[in-house]
Amino acid sequence: MESPAKTGHSPSGHDKENKYRQLIETEEFKYLLQKKKAFIVPVTVFFLAFYFVMPILAA
Asked: Transmembrane residues, as ranges (predicted)?
């Protein structure tokens, strides 16, 4: 196993946790999550409606 000095990673993973926490607190990240939700919810509703209505219309 390589030493942390060679790989540049801490063995405990605290650096990754801190970087992730800093990332999720940024306004840009919150904006991207909001845009993702604004896309996924309508597309999911459309897909489910299409999925259940299509067999009825095809019959």
From this structure: 38-58
Q: Does residue 6 lie within any of the structural domains?
A: no
DSSP calls for the chain: ---HHHH---SS-HHHHHHHHHHHTSHHHHHHHHHHHHHHHHHHHHHHHHHHHHHHHH-
Q: Does the model's pTM come out above 0.70? A: no
pLDDT reading at 13 higher than 80: no
Domain extent, residue 56, equals 27-59
**Alpha carbon distance 59, 47 (integer Å):** 19
Residue 11 lies in a domain: no
